[in-house]
């Protein structure tokens, strides 16, 4: 579904991503793990069209997308939940969800609101509340619901558990698995390597902008290198 080949990204003279190649098959959860500064967020931003690669290709469903504008990438079926959630303050929960559907012209929008409320019942209770007044966990649910309103075939999740209480973290990961079971492919970036790999079909380990290890989620959980570097083992 998604193929990254020899991707390099620079910020001025600084190279953040170095010749990265990986792929995401339809229906999978694929996790990218690595320390802060490893290049994980840069990769997601580049897939979304927010950063431009200095080298390499990004192919989605057989077509190159690395030169497309972000709105065209969303229209093709890729939606991102950014690190830090970035809900729209001053807009209600409902208005934030409406922003997620702004490119859609089909007749299923109302049905998809209902699907979001089923996954995140708290959002239905808070529809007319300013998004900035929600708790961190509720804002994460809103950011995910907003992304789902674009009806993505590929969902990019950037650090969904960051700053959340443990009870919210488990709930978010349960919902990620539910989203996958309902047919959406997921590319997940997550500092909580144990949680990320435990739900992943496959994973890649990034260090200083390069892929240094890959395998199934279970293989990486059992890897001595991964245990030592990311799992405290």
UniProtKB/TrEMBL annotation:
Pfam short name (any one): ABC_tran
Record keyword Oxidoreductase present: no
Entry keyword annotation includes Kinase: no
InterPro entries: AAA+_ATPase, ABC_branched_ATPase_LivF/BraG, ABC_transporter-like_ATP-bd, ABC_transporter-like_CS, BCAA_Transport_ATP-bd_LivF, P-loop_NTPase
Molecular function GO labels: ATP binding
Keyword terms of this UniProt record: Amino-acid transport, ATP-binding, Nucleotide-binding, Transport
Domain named ABC transporter: residues: 2-233
Classification via PANTHER family: HIGH-AFFINITY BRANCHED-CHAIN AMINO ACID TRANSPORT ATP-BINDING PROTEIN LIVF
Family: Belongs to the ABC transporter superfamily.
Name this polypeptide is given: ABC transporter ATP-binding protein
């Amino acid at each position: 579904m998604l193929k990254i080949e020899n991707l390099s990204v620079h910020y001025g003279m600084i190279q953040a991503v170095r010749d990265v190649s990986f792929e995401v098959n339809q229906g999978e959860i694929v996790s990218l793990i690595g320390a802060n500064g490893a290049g994980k967020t840069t990769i997601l931003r580049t897939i979304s069209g927010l950063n431009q690669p200095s080298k390499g290709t990004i192919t989605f469903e057989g077509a190159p997308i690395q030169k497309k504008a972000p709105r065209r990438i969303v229209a093709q079926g890729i939606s991102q939940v950014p690190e830090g959630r970035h809900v729209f303050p001053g807009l209600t929960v409902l208005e934030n969800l409406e922003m997620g559907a702004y490119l859609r012209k089909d007749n299923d929008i109302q049905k998809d609101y209902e699907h979001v409320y089923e996954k995140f019942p708290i959002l239905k209770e808070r529809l007319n509340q300013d998004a900035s007044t929600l708790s961190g966990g509720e804002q994460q649910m809103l950011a995910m619901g907003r992304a789902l309103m674009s009806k993505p075939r590929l969902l990019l999740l950037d650090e969904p558990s960051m700053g959340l209480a443990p009870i919210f973290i488990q709930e978010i990961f349960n919902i990620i698995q539910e989203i996958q079971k309902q047919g959406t492919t997921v590319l997940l970036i997550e500092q909580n390597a144990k949680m990320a790999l435990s739900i992943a079909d496959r994973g890649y380990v990034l260090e200083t902008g390069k892929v240094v290890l890959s395998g199934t989620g279970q293989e990486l959980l059992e890897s001595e290198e991964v245990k030592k570097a990311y799992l405290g083992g």
